[in-house]
Each structure stands twice: as C-alpha cells, then as structure tokens.
Fold this protein.
Amino acid sequence: MTKSRTEASIRNVIISITEQLITLLLMFVQRTFLIKYLATEYLGIEGLFTNILSLLSMLELGFSTALVYSMYKPMAENDEKKINLLMKLYAKIYNTIGTITLIVGFSLTPFLNFFIKEMPNISNISLIYCMYVLNTALSYFFVYKSSIITVAQNQYIITINKFIFTVIQNIVQIFVLVFLKNYIIYYLITIIFTLFTNISISIIANKKFPFIKNKSIGKLSKEEVKEIKNYVSAIFINKIGWSILNGTDNLLISKYIGVVAVGIYSNYLLIVNALHGLIQKVFASITASVGNLGTEENAIASHKVFKKVLMITNILAGTCSICLYILLNPFIYMWIGENFVFSNITVALIVTIFYIETIRRAAYTFYEAYGLFIHFKYKPVFEGVTNLVISIILGKIIGINGILLGTIISLLLFTFWVEPYILYKYVFNKKVKSYFLTLGKYFMIFIFEFILCLLATSFFKNYNMVNFILKCIICLCIPTFLYYILLKNTDEFNFFYNVKDKLLKKIKG
C-alpha cells in the first residue's frame, strides 16, 4: 500500500476498534438490564426476528457491495459526473428495496408460529416483529449515501456518527427498561435512532460531496449498466447462500429446541458477534484501500499486501478463539448465572465457526474488493443448502450441537477453499497451494498456543473474578509471546512492527 492508503486504513482501523469496544461495553450493560427486568424469552425473539430479517436482506441483492465496487475507479479518477449518475441510480433502487422489504416482511406476520416450537408468553409479539421489519426497511432509504464516504476511505466518519447515536440510544433504552419495563417502547427507541443515524450520515455525505446533490445529466452507458447487472446478479446469488448459512441457525434452534434456547445462544453470540464485528470493521476499514490498490498496482504488489493481511487475520483468529473457548463459560456464569451456560462441546463448536469464518476474512476482503463474485457464483447456494439440510438432520438427532455442526461442515466444504482459489487464480496468477501451506503454518502455531493455554489455565477451576482475570492474562500473553517469537523474522511481521513504531513517533510528536 502507498503511504496515504496505509495511513487511511490505520486511521479507520483505530477509530473502528475504539468504537466497537465502547459499544460492546454498552451492549453488555443494556443486555444485563434486559435480562434483569424482562423475561428470557425476549432475548429469544430478538435472535429469532434478527435471523428472519437477515433472510429478508436477500432483497437488498448486494447492491451496496456493487455500489462501492463500481465507484472505486471513478473516485480514483475524480469523475464526479460518473459518481453522481451511480448515486442517483442506486437511490432509486434502494427506495424500491425498502418498500418491498416492508411489504414482504409484514406479509410474514401470520406465519410466526411456524418458526417457534412453543409460542412464548409475550404480549403483542406480532407488533414487535413488525417493528423489527420497519427498522430494517428504514435503513435502505439512506444506505447508499454512506457508500461514497466508504469509497473515499473515510469509514471513520460513519463509525463516529454511528457511535454517537448508539451511546445515546443505549442510555435511553436502559432508562426505559428500569423505569417502564416495556419492550415495545424499548425497541421503538431503536427505530428512532436508526432513523437519526441514517439521516445524519446522509447530511454529512451531502456536505462532504456536494456534487451528489446536483441534478444528474446524461445516463450510464449500456455497457456500464450491463456490467453492474452482471455483478449484482453474482452478489445476489452470494446473498442467498450467505443468508441460508448465517441466517438459519436461530430459526432452526427456535423450531426444534425452543425460543429460550435461542435466548441463551444469543448471549454467546453477543460476545462472538462483537468480536466478529470488531474484526469486520478492521477489514471494512481497509477494503476501500484494497479496492484502490487493485486499480493501481500489479498482481505481485497485491499479493504482498495480501500476505500481510493474512498474517494479521490468523493472529486475530488464533488469539480470539483461544480466549473465547477458555473464557466464555466463566464469563457467562459470572455475568448472568449457571442457567445460561452451555456445555464445553457447544462452546467448542461456536468457537470453531468463529475461527473458520475469521481466517477466511483476508481472502474474502480481497475477493470482495476485486469484484470476484462473478466467478463460481453458485458456491454460496451450494454452501447454504448443504448447511440447511445437514443442520436439520443433525439438529433433530443431537439438538443445538447438530445445528452448529452443520454450519461447520458447509464452511469447510465450500467457503474454506473456493475464495482463496479464485483469488489466486484471477488476481495473483499463482497456485493456491502456497496459501494453504501458509495457512497450515499458522494453524499449527494456533494449536500449539491453544494446548499451552489449556494446560496453564487448568489450575484455575472455580468460576470467580480472580481466576477469570488470571485466565485472561494467560490467554493474551502466551499467544502474543509465541506469535512474536515465531513470526518476528518474517517480512509481514516486520512491516506492521515498523508501522507501529512510526505511529508511536507520530503520536509523541
């Protein structure tokens, strides 16, 4: 990456990490009050409705990704006319999508019983579901405006804007839980702040890029529209597979086990998804730089950058997975009690999904930034259907563990190898064998660290704060030390080590 791209990426990453950590703390406080003042079933319907709406997100067709990808080149060339035409096109598309989401979402209301094994004793559950639909639809009416900020490598602006409204929203919702104990008012606040957040970012985009308010003159060529259609169709198929893969676990748990189990599972997902969100924000912050890199650099330069990103991905995946497996149950136990704790086997499956999805993040970031969805575009469908079939079969036999195992099997059969294969073939012009050899090296380091951490923490059996803190220290220190010892002589490690020194000097200066 050039100096400007590196600095933009680092700035976006630092701000994103800070925002995510503070937001995570607020989410824990909010969830604690929700558990204390309302029934566990409310956690379950949160997870269930979120999954239903993630399936509805297929209506979005991947236009946001297409929009960002199609603007990389005109943004690099400062082609305001082209950007304006693209923005106007997507504004019309998203207004349509928001309307369709409302219609389709509301039409599913009479069928809620199908998704729930035993309907919980929650009043106005249909109204609550409709509020979830409304909240999802509202975001589509403004989402295209944030894309131009992302393409300009100013993701931190979106992050700060969202963070401010999230803090205020969480504080207001906590007051509602304590004094009103009313979930409908609680979620109404979510809708209001979704609207505020999106309107605010729209205003910021208009001020930062005033030309997008101009009346567009002319229209995109047939070739440009055709290219966008081809790209969107590939992403749409990708969306279908992604939605089936990631949007059905809670539905299946609710259907075959019960909504209370969804509520317990959602507590684990709160932590796991927070880490996912943190890692995704890191990669979202560099995606624009990678896309910009693709318009300027050659395959050799791109591969060098990829190797650096791959190293960071595996360090994050390994360290976080070790921490999750060893610390999740003690944390849940101390936070909300023994009744909300899963078995070690279930935790291992949850962490395995996290690990696989995290290590593929490097390849997926380049896969997305280079617009490679068109290649093997039916992969997500195969993956999603495989996951659904295996999860249903195993879920009926061994419960929640079977549902999670179905997700793992489908990830290994498809996602694990397809994305890097396509990336190496069409971008780096190399054999993918080198990728898997590198991945194998990182995996062996991870296993070694994991065993050492298990042995070191096995002496602290009781779930109390002192033991938890000691386990935290062990789970962070052992991987950090070993990654440093084993990787310090690599070009990738030295690159980031030098970046760290330059940042410290800049801060001190």
Notes: DSSP finds 20 helices and no strands in the chain.
